[in-house]
């Protein structure tokens, strides 16, 4: 074989070796994503319709690897209050949950509940809350330092509103009634003289033995569960605000086993997912309400005077809570910071809370 032939043969051998190494190093990474919530909630629907397919597509297009995500919603792997700890243990690699279900474990991350009647536009609420997260590292750090996971996305719910099985003209009409909700919003109801009941998302008021006859919830929950067929007759737009309390997290070990390029795509896609959920939550709020009206529910809205009256009853509790949060690392001045961050987005509070800072 002449010199030219030997050179050509060596080049072919080198190419085969390179291709062989590429083939060996290409991997399929299988991840489990779990949520206690069911399809019908915007962030769950967007996880299925946007986050998972977009992550899969981007990894396939931009790396030699592939990703397969097993989606486990509706509490099939972990119930809502258990997703935080399950993700810490690596049972799912990725957790999708509401911090409202674990407020006792993440008290600082429920700061926005201490100042209701906040921004109702989900995209602006996200900007205000992100501003607070950016200035207080403990809010993200608690996931990594205490619960073995990394916060990837922070997302808003729709505004909390009222669903009742009786006519309501004023928030004071809730006095004496039992209202279902999630722990962090109980104080809003108690100042009105209402009783509270922790629910796990059923909100069914058709049973004669139901322990509650009203719910503090949101429009998409009412449409997805068809609560207009389960005893709910009235929907009251309260203006309580779109709380940014939904999170997407990833187990630290699960993240570490991914190649650097896949990790980067996961974080990038999660950031886009965060914005997507906020935009869709904002855009679909009104259509959900129209669906409830078309189904026969009576839809009303609190006046500014009614909002102010309710907020004035909440204000002393807000001041007390600000003092309690000040004892938590990162908690000093957090409510006041949230108030100002909301105002920077153009929000006008019906009552500007004295957060004691």
Tell me what you see in this structure.
With 357 residues, the protein is α/β, with parallel strands linked by helices. It is 45% helix and 16% strand. The chain has helices at 3-25, 42-62, 83-89, 122-135, 138-147, 186-190, 219-224, 252-256, 260-294, 304-325, 334-344; strands at residues 28-35, 66-72, 94-98, 149-155, 161-164, 178-181, 195-198, 214-217, 234-237, 246-251, 298-301. The protein has a six-stranded mixed sheet. α6 (186-190) links the parallel β6 and β7. α2 packs antiparallel against α9 and α4 (122-135) crosses α11. The longest helix has 35 residues, at 260-294. The radius of gyration is 24 Å and the shape is globular.
Largest sheet features: 6 strands, mixed
Name the structural class: alpha/beta
Distance between the termini: 86 Å
Average pLDDT value?
A: 91
Query: What topology, given as strand order, has the largest sheet?
Result: 7-6-8-5-9-11
Number of contiguous helices: 11
Topology, number of strands: 11
Strand content: 15-25%
- Return the string of H and E elements: HEHEHEHHEEEHEEHEEHHEHH
Integer-rounded radius of gyration:
24 Å
Which residue ranges are poorly predicted, with pLDDT under 50 across at least 5 consecutive positions? 16-24
What's the overall geometry? globular
Share of helix, binned: 40-55%
């Amino acid at each position: 074989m002449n010199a030219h032939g030997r050179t050509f043969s060596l080049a072919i051998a080198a190419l085969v070796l390179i291709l062989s190494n590429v083939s060996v190093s290409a991997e399929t990474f299988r991840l489990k994503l779990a949520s206690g919530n069911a399809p019908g909630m915007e962030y769950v629907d967007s996880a299925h319709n946007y986050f998972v397919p977009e992550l899969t597509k981007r990894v396939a297009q931009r790396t030699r690897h592939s990703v397969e995500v097993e989606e486990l919603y509706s509490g099939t792997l972990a119930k809502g209050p258990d997703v935080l700890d399950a993700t810490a243990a690596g049972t799912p690699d990725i957790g999708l949950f509401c911090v409202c279900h674990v407020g006792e474990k993440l008290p600082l991350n429920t700061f926005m509940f201490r100042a209701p009647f906040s921004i109702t536009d989900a995209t602006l609420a996200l900007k205000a809350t992100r501003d607070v997260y950016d200035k207080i590292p403990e809010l993200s750090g608690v996931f990594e330092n205490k619960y073995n996971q990394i916060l990837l996305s922070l997302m808003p719910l729709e505004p909390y509103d009222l669903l009742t099985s009786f006519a309501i003209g004023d928030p004071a009409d809730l006095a004496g009634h039992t209202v279902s909700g999630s722990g962090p919003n109980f104080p809003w109801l108690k100042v009105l003289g209402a009783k509270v009941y922790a629910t796990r998302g059923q909100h069914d008021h058709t049973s004669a033995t139901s322990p509650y006859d009203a719910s503090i919830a949101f429009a998409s929950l009412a449409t997805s569960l068809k609560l207009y067929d389960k005893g709910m007759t009235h929907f009251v737009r309260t203006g309580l605000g779109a709380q940014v309390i939904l999170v997407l997290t990833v187990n630290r070990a699960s993240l570490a086993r991914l190649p650097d390029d896949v990790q980067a795509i996961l974080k990038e896609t999660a950031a886009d997912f965060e914005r997507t959920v906020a935009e869709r939550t904002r855009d679909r709020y009104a259509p959900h309400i129209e669906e409830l009206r078309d189904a026969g529910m009576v839809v009303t809205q609190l006046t500014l005077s009614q909002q102010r009256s309710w907020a004035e009853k909440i204000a002393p509790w807000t001041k007390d809570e600000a003092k309690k949060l000040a004892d938590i690392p990162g908690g000093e001045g957090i409510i006041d910071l949230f108030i100002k961050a909301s105002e920077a987005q153009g929000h006008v509070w019906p009552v500007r809370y004295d957060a004691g800072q």
